[in-house]
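ENCODED BACKBONE
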Amino acid sequence: MNSHRPNGSPHAHLLHVSLNAAAVKTVKVQSLTICHGGNDFLNGGSDAEVARNLRAMVAAVQASGADAVLLGVPRPGLLLRAPPLYAEVAKEFRLPCDVRLVPRVLSSAPLKSDMIHPNEAGYLQIAQRVAKLIRSSAR
């Protein structure tokens, strides 16, 4: 596991986990937010590859007994939109999902630390929305 504090902020602590079945079994969590695909798209990965990776991640999370929340990640470009594969995977696994959040944050200069990463304010918006998704899915 590798922790990262964007802009040195103690308030924007992100935990990056190389997600596989062993990691999910080792780190006991109740809920995991999956926000995957950005690097794959930057490296020319296809929608099918990203969807396959998402399905494997969701299956590992669910097999561990944890809940998953899915966030759609946009392909690089002028109009940032998450591909339909995120909504499809979410529907297939009956997951709470937001396909607009990350593209909206990455479309706003005051919410970004560089061209592809949110800053502290951006991560805060993401965290607040994920909290709402979790609360609304628990009802």
About this structure: Confidence is low (pLDDT under 50) at residues 1-19. The CA atoms of residues 66 and 105 lie 27 Å apart. The first strand starts at residue 2 and ends at 4. Strands lie at 2-4, 14-16, 31-34, 67-71, 97-98.
